[in-house]
Amino acid sequence: MTAVPSEEEVHDVLGIGFGPSNLALAIALEEHNRTAPAADRLSGVFFERKPAFGWHRGMLIEGTTMQVSFLKDLVTMRNPASDFSFLSYLHAKQRLVDFINHKTMFPTRVEYHDYLEWAAARVADQVRYDAEVVELHRAGEHFEAVVRRGGQLEVHRARNVVLAVGLEASVPAGAELGDRVWHNLDLLHRVDELTEAPRRCVVVGAGQSAAEVTEYLHRTFPAAEVCAVFSRYGYSPADDSPFANRIFDPQAVDDFHTASPEVRDQLLDYHRNTNYSVVDLDLIEELYARAYQEKVRGEQRLRILNASRVRDVATRDGGVSVTVEHLPSGERAELAADLLVYATGCRPRDPLPLLGEAAQDCERDERGRLQVERDYRLRTSADLPGGIYLQGGTEHTHGLTSSLLSNGAVRAGEIRDSILTRRSRTAAAEPDRAVSYA
């Protein structure tokens, strides 16, 4: 199939992926262009494989709440006066007073997703859905992206590229997903496919998602036994205390990026319990209360198989056989289950396959990891037509807020401003060169 040029314009920004991170960037471009002279505006286009905007739809469990304040929305930390804020969304939906009376800083995940969809609809002119970037390469003074869209290949040109390719499911080595073995990212999609209620479910994992899946399955299927399997002795509470939360502050990114590799490792280790394999205390207490009341009634459905590990999984007709080992004793038990859910986390998608020949110019550290400048631009050993920026996959250089919502608004503004600054420097260095950025 031959790729054909789709348009003459060379965009200032070409975004790959359109989740919350690049949505925040699209808004930052929109807000800049509202007040900038025509010659100083930035043109942007974003490509998203999905047919419509969506953010972890498979985990939009009714009643689950966000773990970050609504003030850390798409814009407020960068521009508190923005009309793209969560408060502006509430006002537009005529729920502002109701939300205030609710007395919470943490909206439900379903409501926050509705906010994201509302914001995405307002910048829809910048986005091409059902469009997958399959190749990126240098072409003279710009990048060319080959995009598969509507059964055809198109070529789009840009001076800068911003990759926000999101996360992918992480499962234990050797694990295979299937009809009755899922990752939690697909939970709600796969539950809808069930033709009959499961009698026994096994959930593997000790973090927030694992606890949420356990609670959801226990509540949704009142006749089912739900077995939570994890190697810890109990769920560990997330540290969301005020001082610990400073690790998510914009200033913390500056501190982290300037620190030595040894200090970076220490900071990640010290504050891992703010984000990884930890659970909100309210949910821990809810699950404990359920398990206790079931013991009182003598009809235990919620089984917490702590200090344990899944040793083997074998598919069987209509379900799976899960072998669980109790680590202190070494005893093993085989559970005949209708459903196994791995809630074992996610990892950043590897951006390098998209970069093509440009990947060989990307500098790496002694561990083989990409080197990323403070403005989220890849450090390269050769001059490229423009910048390649990452939103995600930069935890080793920028800390825990690498791809989290906490710093999304500020990160988007920093990338936009970096592109503007670099463009101004190029124009100053080449005053006789006629280039239109309108």
Salient structural properties:
alpha/beta; five-stranded parallel beta sheet; 438 residues; globular
Gist of the model:
The protein has 438 residues and is of the alpha/beta class. It has twelve helices and 19 strands.
Task: Please tell me about this protein's structure.
- Helix 1 (20-35) crosses helix 12 (408-429).
- The strands form five sheets. Strands 4-3-2-8-19 form a five-stranded parallel beta sheet, covered by helices on one side.
- With 438 residues, it is an alpha/beta fold.
- A hairpin with a 2-residue loop joins strand 6 (142-149) and strand 7 (152-158).
- The radius of gyration is 24 Å and the shape is globular.
- The two termini are 32 Å apart.
- 29% of the residues lie in helices and 22% in strands.
- Mean pLDDT is 93; it is low at 433-438.
Number of separate strands: 19
Distance between the termini: 32 Å
What structural class do you assign from the helix and strand content? alpha/beta
State the helical fraction: 25-40%
Unreliable stretches (pLDDT < 50, length at least 5) are 433-438
Mean pLDDT: 93
Largest sheet: 5 strands, parallel
Instruction: Tell me, briefly, the overall form.
Output: globular
Number of helices: 12
Rg calc: 24 Å
The strand order across the widest sheet is 4-3-2-8-19
